[in-house]
């Protein structure tokens, strides 16, 4: 009746890249680099969903060696995986996410990200939590070399009596 999954992702900062987190473009002096749009939060969420249904990870479904996914919109990748989740008969119970970034300040953008994640997972915003933390200037995130994200997801079988 329940399936749990967790996801973790990291992307490095680069000059002249947009910063896209949770499907939202965030004003900043640099962005994240990747084969795709490097949306570090949506990648962690996609991995959590894949983990919950026992389907490996994002790179197995969308290889970074495949030109088809060059500059891919990570929201579309997540939507594709979410269709599989729904086909297996599951819906979102809840999801809790953490963005690990020294900068920029995420607080002004959290509600917009939360709304976008809820929309992608066909859920109510009350089922989605997004938070942020610095690492107190320690490590690669603290040195502002990149951003990391974590996601923990609970899927519930549709129509299950809880
Ligand atoms: N990129 C970030 C990081 C943190 N926040 C908010 O600040 C609070 C304090 O951060 P600590 O790392 O000192 O725990 C945190 O709880 C977040 O609300 C942020 O907005 N953006
Ligand atoms: C999303 C994919 C595919 O474009 O590329 P990246 O943006 O490099 O992201 P990553 O989190 O390394 O893993 C999955 C990739 O295959």
From TrEMBL:
List each coiled-coil range. none
Q: Which cofactor does it need?
A: a divalent metal cation
Q: Give start and end of each 2-C-methyl-D-erythritol 2,4-cyclodiphosphate synthase domain.
A: 2-155
Q: Which residues bind 4-CDP-2-C-methyl-D-erythritol 2-phosphate?
A: 9-11, 35-36, 57-59, 62-66, 101-107, 133-136, 140, 143
Q: Which residues bind a divalent metal cation?
A: 9, 11, 43
On whether Cytoplasm is a keyword of this UniProt record, the answer is: no
Q: Where is this site: Transition state stabilizer?
A: 35, 134
Which class of enzymes does this protein belong to? lyase
Q: What is its EC number?
A: 4.6.1.12
Gene3D superfamilies (alphabetical) = 2-C-methyl-D-erythritol 2,4-cyclodiphosphate synthase (3.30.1330.50)
> What UniProt keywords are attached to this protein's entry?
Isoprene biosynthesis, Lyase, Metal-binding
UniProt pathway annotation: Isoprenoid biosynthesis; isopentenyl diphosphate biosynthesis via DXP pathway; isopentenyl diphosphate from 1-deoxy-D-xylulose 5-phosphate: step 4/6
InterPro entries registered for this protein in UniProt? MECDP_synthase (IPR003526), MECDP_synthase_CS (IPR020555), MECDP_synthase_sf (IPR036571)
- In the record's cofactor note, how is the cofactor described as bound? Binds 1 divalent metal cation per subunit.
Q: Does the keyword DNA damage apply?
A: no
What SUPFAM superfamilies does the annotation carry? IpsF-like
What is the reaction catalyzed?
4-CDP-2-C-methyl-D-erythritol 2-phosphate = 2-C-methyl-D-erythritol 2,4-cyclic diphosphate + CMP
Which terms does the record give in the GO molecular function aspect? 2-C-methyl-D-erythritol 2,4-cyclodiphosphate synthase activity
Q: Which domain of life is it from?
A: Bacteria
The entry's family comment says: Belongs to the IspF family.
Biological function: Involved in the biosynthesis of isopentenyl diphosphate (IPP) and dimethylallyl diphosphate (DMAPP), two major building blocks of isoprenoid compounds. Catalyzes the conversion of 4-diphosphocytidyl-2-C-methyl-D-erythritol 2-phosphate (CDP-ME2P) to 2-C-methyl-D-erythritol 2,4-cyclodiphosphate (ME-CPP) with a corresponding release of cytidine 5-monophosphate (CMP).
Q: How does it assemble?
A: Homotrimer.
User: What protein name is recorded for this chain?
Assistant: 2-C-methyl-D-erythritol 2,4-cyclodiphosphate synthase
According to its UniProt entry, this protein's organism is Chungangia koreensis
Name of the coding gene: ispF
């Amino acid at each position: 009746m329940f399936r749990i999954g967790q996801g973790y992702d990291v992307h490095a900062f680069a000059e002249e890249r947009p910063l896209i987190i949770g499907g939202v473009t965030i004003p900043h002096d640099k962005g994240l680099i990747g084969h795709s749009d490097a949306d570090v939060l949506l990648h962690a969420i996609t991995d959590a969903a894949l983990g919950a249904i026992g389907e490996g990870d994002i790179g197995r479904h969308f290889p970074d060696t495949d030109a088809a996914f060059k500059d891919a919109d990570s929201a579309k990748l997540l939507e594709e995986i979410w269709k599989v989740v729904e086909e297996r008969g599951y819906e979102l119970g809840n999801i809790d996410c953490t963005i690990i970034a020294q900068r920029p300040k995420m607080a002004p953008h959290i509600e917009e990200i939360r709304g976008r994640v809820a929309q992608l997972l066909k859920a109510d915003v009350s089922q989605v939590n997004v938070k942020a933390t610095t690492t107190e200037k320690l490590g690669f995130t603290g040195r502002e070399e990149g951003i990391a994200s974590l996601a923990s997801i609970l899927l519930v079988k549709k129509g299950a009596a809880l």
